[in-house]
Every structure is written in structure tokens, then in C-alpha cells.
Amino acid sequence: MSQTHLTKMILARVQKYNKKPALYYKKSGQWESISWEEMGNQIKCISKALLECELGEQERVGIYSQNKPQWTIADYGIMGIRGITTTIYATNSAPEAEYIINDAEIGILFVGGQEQYDKVMQFFPNNEFLKQIVVFDNSVKIKQDRNILYFDDFVKKGLAASNETEYKNRFAGSVEDDIATIIYTSGTSGTPKGVMLTQANLFSQFIALDPLFNIGENDIELCFLPFSHSYQKSSTHWTQSHGVTVYYCENPRDILEYFKEVRPTFMVGVPRLYEKMYATAYARLEEASDLKRKLFNWAIRTGREYQYKSFRKEKISFSLNLKHNMARSLVLNKIRAIMGGRLNFFSAGGAPLSPEIEEFFFAAGIFIAQGYGLTETSPVITCNRQDRFKFGTPGTVVSICRVKIAEDGEILVKGDNVMKGYFRKPELTAEVFTTDGWFKTGDIGYMDDEEFLHITDRKKDIIITAGGKNIAPQRIESLFGKDYYIEQITVIGDKRRYITALIVPSFEALEEYAKAHEINYSSIAELVRNERVLTFYEKRLQEISMPLAKYEMIKKFRLLSEPFSQEKGEITPTLKIKRKILEENYKEMIEKMYMA
User: Fold this and answer.
1) 162 secondary structure, DSSP code
2) Which of helix, strand or coil describes residue 149?
3) DSSP class of 336
4) How far apart are CA 60 and CA 53, in angstroms?
5) What is the secondary structure of 27-61 as a DSSP string?
6) What is the pLDDT of residues 496-551, one digit of tens each?
7) To 5 degrees, how large is the angle CA 497–CA 502–CA 504?
8) What distance in Å separates the CA atoms of residue 151 and residue 489, rounded to the nearest whole number?
9) DSSP designation for 330
10) 26: which strand partners?
11) 397's torsion region: left (phi>0), alpha (psi -120 to 50) or beta?
12) Percentage helix, strand, coil for the chain under 3-state DSSP, each rounded to 5
């Protein structure tokens, strides 16, 4: 690829694909498209409008929105004149958004819908830095203020601007060492930090992934994760470099509906999405007849055997081929149909995914390319791919970086994908690098004999019991995450005699169970205290715990009547658990589980 700047890359693709649809979005229940040509025109208009607002080189512009085509267009427009796209999760609270605006000194902010706009208006009148707001959604009710515009009007401002020479000079002056984006980490501990990723950092992902995955202009990507997340943002830059058509999912709760309508060929996701699909399939199986259960399990075994033989290039017998065709017709194609029927592969990251779930989808002909990375590494460090994988691991190291394991087991990384640093935080930047320049991931792991990386847990999350046993909570939580009746779980036990857990039930599943077993209740709070419900969960925990060592097993638990929430600071926008805050918020409940 000759371009080393994302906006130059996308405008080159505009010339190639022209009238072809580039972006799809839902409007009044119908899918609407934006062509490559229209996208390119709007990108240029955004750049010129930002110049009219006197945006300087390498100044920060914020985007505070759910997934929308305007997010992508604004992003490329900002970078096109050497601005820095600074991301804010659509679910961030007003104080969280204002923190980022102040920390990055953001003067111009793009906002998504009414919710984000209303939050910004809580502090906009008195904010020291914020001068201009541009609203993506035309249905948002905005106040009459020359400093608040709709996106369409901002595009018109750029179209009317007479700054073509200034635009061309700024565009031509962009270089690969420019900071392309600042992405604020979710902050599972401490205050969020702005990760500075350069154009070269993001282009390193193209170099890493292009030889490993076959993706092209006939593919369709469904954007499920927020663009504020480095994983989705980086992925879509990569797919668009190949002319992929992008569909936007604004609300993750609509994902199953979107699967059926969009029928994507590629998507990135987090393990919780796959865990819920797997759990739902097996929960429905519990209610099925013996014959249907046997048929389902036979089909999965057959699909798994067939796929492994195909992967190993072993001869497939006539008998196995016949059985596989039957398994596809009776079961496996129905699993594929849930995701639209033509998905080639998923990409998964952000947390461990159990090999049972990977093999379940693999049996149905859907490959999950589990990988590993961090915002600070742009993000991909390792990944599985269709011609070389090992389920239960996040794969092997990609070409653009090196990995080594420190004496204490911490995973260290060095390469073109590693960030420039934390924005205006040189001391914190220095803390995460060794003296010889290796980035300290904070994750514990090891390399096996075949060069596959294994991650055991976050360094700060390791539980050391009163008996001196080291326990990796993420592994245990991942095991229980497969259960249909469990929505969220956090494991507790550091410096304590045994392991306990706080469990948020899947309330929909639990209410189904209560109805089927004639358990009366007046509220969720009453239901989670019901003795029959507690006995039911205790039995499930015992069954799921079978693979665990005795000291890893959950001895006591509490069911919660409300989910862990971002509003209470208990989870990050990417659904990662903030353990210290959870333990503080439920301190009294936890202490009671350790009473004699």
C-alpha cells in the first residue's frame, strides 16, 4: 500500500469505487446508503469547515457518539488536515466526557444523538476549551446558537469555504508520524489516559493483517463495537482500505436483528457476544427432547471432525462427507443462519474466550479469529488465523512486533504498533516502558513450544488467597460466562480463605425459569433471594466448576438484583469489570460471605 496516511488512503479508494455504496445506516427502519463518492466529498467538506474554525495542526477534535456514518466521515475529515480525532464513548457520563474534553483541550466536538447533546449542554456554557458543537443527528433539538450546528450544515459550511489552497497545503503536509487519534483507555483502575496513536501505528495493522486474511471489496462488515474502541476503529480502517462495505449498528442490543438483515461476511466482537449465543443455544437444548439433543450434539461433533480434517488437509471419507452434509442440513446451517448465513469469520478480542465456544462455531463453519492486543498497541499483537490457529489461545505474534515474557511473567511488546505515549503524561508513559524500550502490557502469560501466546490474567487482578494460592479470576469468570442464566460475574478472594462471587443473573432467563417452575415473586429483588432460585444457582455453579481446582471453586455467592453499571463506575464502556469499585460498592455483602 503506497499511502501512509488514512485520509489519503480513503480518498484514493473513493477514486476507485466512486458510485458504489460505501456506508449503510438505518433511517426510519430502512437501510440507506452513502456512496464512496459522497463520502469523499463530505470528508473534504469537513476538513475545510474545520479550517474555517481555525483548527491548528495536531489540535484535538472530539467525537462523542454511537456508531454512525458521520463518525467515520468526521474522523477522516479531522485527520485530513492533520487534526487529531479524540474519542469519547457514547455511554460516557457528562463528567467523564468533560474530563476528556478538558484533558485533551478539545475546542470542537462532534456529538451523536439527543443523549450525548444533553450531557454536553450540562457543561458547555462554562467550559474553558469547548467552543463549537456539531450534532450528527438532525432530529436532536438544539438551542439557537451560532456555535452549535447540525452536521449537514457543517458540511455546507465546508462546501462554501474559499480555503482550497490552505486545505491542499495542509492535506499535502500530513506525514506518517502525525498523531492520528487519541483514544482514552477505559480505566479499570485509576483515571483514563489518552493513548496517542500515529498514522504509522494504525498502518502497521494493515501490514500485519493483509497477509493473514482474505478480505476484499465484495465483503460486508457489520460494525458492532463502538468506534471509540481502538479495536473497531482500527478494524474498519483496515477493511475500508480493501473496499469493504460497512454497515453501522448504533445499538448493540439490535445485533441479532442486524445479522439477519445485513448478512455480514466479517465482524469484530467481544467474547460476551459469542458466550451469549452459545449459552442460548445450549439452554434451548436443555428443554428439547432426547432425540433433538442427541441430533444436535451429533451434528456438532460431525462438524468439528470435518472442519479439523479440512484444516489439517487430511482426506475426508465419503462417509464423513455424507454425515457432514446431513449435519449441515439438519443443524449447522441453522446456527449459521442466526448470523445471516454467510459470515466467513469473526474477530474476537478484549477478554479470554473458551475453546468450547470457538469449537462450537468452528463446527458450524464459522471461524473465530481470537486475538490479543491493547489500545496502546493499535491494538493487535497476536491473532489466530484460518491457516494457523490453536483454540484457547489468542494466536501467534503478528509480523510488525516482537513479544517477550519478563521474569515475573508479564508480556512485553516492542514494534511499529506500540503507541507514541500517553497524552501530556510523560511520567505515566515512562512507567509502562522498560529502560530498553519494551512496552509493559500488564498481562501475565507465556509462549508455548509452537509459539502460541497464552494469557493467564491481568497482573493487577491475580488473586492470592490466604493459603498462598495464585488464582486467575478472568479464567474462572470466562468459564461461568458460558452459562445461560449468568449475565455478569466477578470473583473475589484476594488475601481471603476461599473464593466467593457476586453474580448478576440473566434476568430474562431467570424469569423464564421462575415461570416454568411456578415460583411467585413481586420483584427481581425478591426473586434473587428465593430459596429455590438460590438452590438452582448453587447446583449450576457446582456443575460448571468441575474443571477447576478445589481452591478455585466458588464457596459462596450472592445474586444481585441490578446489573453492574457504568453509571456507578463498576464497569468500563467496554464492559470490563472494575474490581476495586465493585468490592467497595458491595463491601458489606462481601464481608458477610466470609463470616464464620
Assistant:
1) -
2) strand
3) H
4) 13
5) ETTEEEEEEHHHHHHHHHHHHHHHHHTTPPTT-EE
6) 999 999 999 999 999 999 999 999 999 999 999 999 999 999 999 999 999 999 99
7) 165
8) 41
9) I
10) 31
11) beta
12) 40, 20, 35
The CA distance from 442 to 190, in Å, is 14
* 162's grid cell: 474559499
Q: Which residue has the cell 465546508?
A: 158
Q: Which of these ranges, 28-37, 183-192, 416-425, 469-478, has the smallest mean pLDDT? A: 183-192
Amino acid 537 reads Y
> Quick one: cell of 104?
485533551
Q: Can you give the C-alpha Rg of the chain in angstroms?
A: 25
pTM: 0.91
Phi and psi at residue 573, to the nearest 5°: -60, -20
57-69 pLDDT, tens digit each: 999 999 999 999 9
Q: Write down all domains in the chain, each with its CATH number in brackets.
A: 6-174+210-269 (3.40.50.12780), 462-593 (3.30.300.30)
Indicate the DSSP class of residue 550.
G
The phi, psi pair for 497, rounded to 5°, reads -75, -30
**Among the listed residues 89, 161, 86, 191, the one whose alpha carbon sits nearest the alpha carbon of residue 129:** 86
Query: Per-residue pLDDT for 1 more than 70?
Result: no
What is the DSSP annotation of 254-275? GHHHHHHHH--SEEEE-HHHHH
What's the pLDDT at 396? 98
- pLDDT tens per residue across span 466-492: 988 889 898 899 899 889 999 999 999
For residue 179, the cross-strand partners are 198
Helix (H) or strand (E) holding 447: strand 439-447
Q: Which secondary-structure segment (H or E) carries 404?
A: strand 401-405
- pLDDT at res. 186: 67
pLDDT score of 197 more than 50:
yes
Looking at residue 351, its pLDDT comes to 80
Residue that has been written with the C-alpha cell 464513548 in this structure: 89
Residues 394-442 have pLDDT tens digits of: 999 999 999 999 999 999 999 999 999 999 999 999 999 999 999 999 9
Whole-angstrom distance, CA of residue 177 vs CA of residue 228? 21
Q: E strands within 156-217? A: 179-184, 194-198
Residue 431: how many CB atoms within 10 A of its CB?
A: 10
410 with 197: CB under 8 angstroms? no
